[in-house]
Amino acid sequence: KEEKQRLRKEKKQQKKNKEKNDEKTSHEGEKKKNKKKKEEQPAVPAPAPPPPAAAAVPVPASEAPAPADKPAKSKADLKAERRARQEAERASKGKKGDVGQPAPTGKLKAPPSELQPVVKRLPEHVQVDNPEVVKKLAKKLERQQIPLRSDYGYKVSLFSHLHQYSRKAPLTQQLGIPSTVIHPAIVRLGLQYSQGIVAGSNARSVALLHAFQQVIRDYTTPPNEELSRDLVNKLKPYISFLNQCRPLSASMGNAIKYIKKEISNIPSQCKEEEAKIKLLNCIERYINEKIVLAAKAIAKYSIEKISDGDVILFPPNCSFNAFEKKRKFRVIVVDSRPRLEGREALRRLVQKGISCTYVLISAVSYILPEVSKVFLGAHALLANGYVMSRVGTSQIALVAKAFNVPVLVCCETYKFCERVQTDSFVSNELDDPDDLIVTRKGKTQLEHWQKVPSLGLLNLVYDVTPPDFVDLVITDLGMIPCTSVPVVLRVKNVDQ
Amino acid sequence: MRPGLHEEWGEIDLTERIEAFLSDLKRGGSGTGPLRGSAEMARETTALLRRIAAQARWSNAGDLMEIIRTEGRRMTAAQPSETTVGNMIRRVLKIIREEYARSRGSSEETDQQESLHKLLTSGGLSEENFRQHFAALKANVIEAINELLTELEGTTDNIKMQALEHIHSNEVIMTIGRSRTVEAFLKDAARKRKFHVIVAECAPFCQGHKMATSLSEAGIETTVITDAAIFAVMSRVNKVIIGTQTVLANGGLRAVNGTHTLALAAKHHSTPLIVCAPMFKLSPQFPNEEDTFHKFVSPHEVLPFTEGEILSKVNVHCPVFDYVPPELITLFISNIGGHAPSYIYRLMSELYHPEDHEL
């Protein structure tokens, strides 16, 4: 950072010695440097919005044609100088072995055209085995005054790149009361996440948005600061804190992106009260449109797909309450250890008067011959058509495919994300391993698993289902095949 | 001592033992008694059959076979899912036939199975009715049953010895539930090779936990996963090695529930599925008897009574076994070597006589 500032000063001085156009150029160059600095700051877990235009893409060190918006030829040598300086910077950074290196290398490979940079920053929570990343995160959290959560228990070697936390040691135990940095609504939310009180993609997003509404209500702009920039900076430690409590889901990431965009779009001459009301309305509208109404739309489409006398299979994470009694059908709820979320869904269905059957996931191949359709819920839909969902979903889809039963996935569009993934190892979440311990007939086999050196317990939270197992995806935009996800994303991006 | 009284005492003792065995079978199957392995069950059945052959009153092979068949029907009715009992009975019946044929002097191959040619030429059923009396038959039969017992005792060792042929170093092996055969297999391989084992816990009985603790105590790197994660981790697994309750006549399996899912996942990732099953588990049953194929236990395991009001409005199933079709299986490892599933029918004809398939 200091080096960058020094170089900037140097450049400024040099520019002042040059011709009159240089003022404008140096201003642009500064902006460029600013943006570059911001981008190369340590990773914020919610992927930062990619730098908007081609001009902001730092010119790759390789021989790349000049960006299109520098028409005057006299600036060519200025650019060359700047480029050389950037190269020098990058080289010096490379000597330190900075972990930000993958990011500039990624940008080096980025085509210098109007397209956005291809490689986004790798989130910290999948780089636990890289000690530099861990150190960087610790420093960042220290700056933001958020305690760092420590890993627990023996991690299976295939997953040493992920965190594994214990539910018995919540992050809030290490916070002072009252915490000056973090809003109490966020502290409560973080605790609810880490203890599993608020679980499920939709519930987590809605809770997050409500908490942010509370934050905005209590916010006052400090003097000499602009609301649009300061509020975003205020939100950053909250997001880090929530990420420490429980890694953010794709839907939460999208919601945060939306909020940040809305905040930064607030014109600077807007009064504070107006701005706050505008933001609160935005969030309210987001919740209403993307979550509540979307669920209703999905329910409406799904009812079309259910015929009389059907037998439907449900894993529990399908948040499906809007059942009208137009059709007669039977439901089979499939549940799995250790969360056993199916019991709650079972209660809700029984209350609605639907006749239900309840089995564990190991009995799925026994019960599947009776089933006519399988409905699955999704946590996120990835850009290559894979469905990321609660662990066990891919298994049900696999067995359904073997028995030729149609598989339908219900997913709101706000859960679509641009990531791609092919297996369940690279990016996943490890839950508390002690959940697997069970006491049967008074004997707990795994009670002392920590003492046995070669024994590990694996409690995965998510898995990915390949698109050839899925027959149809029901979204609020309609019914699409699994492979149309990038089309929807593109349309959404164009809209925004 | 009057021989008659001795015989009477022997008979009373025998009936008592048979009754005790039957009630044990009935109790053991409900899940409340101590779960006994199939090997023990096979050994006990064979010992009991030897006792019947020694102490019951019979004068010719036909009588003995009739006695054994009657007792056998009672035993299989007591616990239909415990197929090793029926298998041992059929083995003993085949032994009796062989000994009888040998005593008569005719070679064994002539009255093996009925070929189409034989049906046409001999005209009608075989006239063999096993009514001839041979003095040495009793001793021969008992000796042959003793041989069978020794074979039973050595099955696990024979399977264990093949372990190093199938496991290479740094492999990741997946298994499900608890099988003593697979446990011995893996422990034997672990003496010379280092590999990882992933155990699926197999809810609701969670026998996988016991397997995992036992394997990790032998120094094998073990991981316990939930049943729901089987497909998720399958892409990193090199081999799937499982045990089974029964091997069916078509080469399919009747194994603990969750095995079908495991087999489908292995097929999807083209991972070989190896079944370690000793020969006494091979049963001449075919899988299409739907009503007797599945066994269910109390749904309390799945949805406990503490869940309250919803219990009366909900159907809960807790099946114990799964059917795995033979197309999903790559290899059977038994005490007589390795076989493909398509060869199982041949082995069956060596072990059992076709007339004994229906007891």
From TrEMBL, chain A:
Its main location: cytoplasm. Residues 1-18 have a biased composition (Basic residues). One of its GO terms (cellular component) is eukaryotic translation initiation factor 2B complex. InterPro entries: IF-2B-related (IPR000649), IF_2B-like_C (IPR042529), NagB/RpiA_transferase-like (IPR037171). Residues 1-113 are annotated as: Disordered. Residues 19-41, 70-98 have a biased composition (Basic and acidic residues). The keyword Transcription does not apply. GO terms for biological process: animal organ development; central nervous system development. Residues 44-53 have a biased composition (Pro residues). One of its GO terms (molecular function) is translation initiation factor activity. Residues 54-69 have a biased composition (Low complexity). Gene3D superfamilies: Translation initiation factor eif-2b, domain 2. It is found in: Cytoplasm, Cytosol. It comes from the Eukaryota. Keywords: Cytoplasm, Initiation factor, Protein biosynthesis. Component of the translation initiation factor 2B (eIF2B) complex which is a heterodecamer of two sets of five different subunits: alpha, beta, gamma, delta and epsilon. Subunits alpha, beta and delta comprise a regulatory subcomplex and subunits epsilon and gamma comprise a catalytic subcomplex. Within the complex, the hexameric regulatory complex resides at the center, with the two heterodimeric catalytic subcomplexes bound on opposite sides. Belongs to the eIF-2B alpha/beta/delta subunits family. Acts as a component of the translation initiation factor 2B (eIF2B) complex, which catalyzes the exchange of GDP for GTP on eukaryotic initiation factor 2 (eIF2) gamma subunit. Its guanine nucleotide exchange factor activity is repressed when bound to eIF2 complex phosphorylated on the alpha subunit, thereby limiting the amount of methionyl-initiator methionine tRNA available to the ribosome and consequently global translation is repressed. This is Translation initiation factor eIF2B subunit delta. It comes from Gasterosteus aculeatus aculeatus (three-spined stickleback).
UniProtKB/TrEMBL annotation, chain B:
GO terms for cellular component: cytosol; eukaryotic translation initiation factor 2B complex. This is Translation initiation factor eIF2B subunit beta. The lineage of its organism: Eukaryota, Metazoa, Chordata, Craniata, Vertebrata. Acts as a component of the translation initiation factor 2B (eIF2B) complex, which catalyzes the exchange of GDP for GTP on eukaryotic initiation factor 2 (eIF2) gamma subunit. Its guanine nucleotide exchange factor activity is repressed when bound to eIF2 complex phosphorylated on the alpha subunit, thereby limiting the amount of methionyl-initiator methionine tRNA available to the ribosome and consequently global translation is repressed. The keyword Protein biosynthesis applies. It is found in: Cytoplasm, Cytosol. Pfam families: IF-2B. Belongs to the eIF-2B alpha/beta/delta subunits family. Keywords: Cytoplasm, Initiation factor, Protein biosynthesis. It comes from the Eukaryota. Component of the translation initiation factor 2B (eIF2B) complex which is a heterodecamer of two sets of five different subunits: alpha, beta, gamma, delta and epsilon. Subunits alpha, beta and delta comprise a regulatory subcomplex and subunits epsilon and gamma comprise a catalytic subcomplex. Within the complex, the hexameric regulatory complex resides at the center, with the two heterodimeric catalytic subcomplexes bound on opposite sides. Gene3D superfamilies: Translation initiation factor eif-2b, domain 2. One of its GO terms (molecular function) is translation initiation factor activity. One of its GO terms (biological process) is central nervous system development.
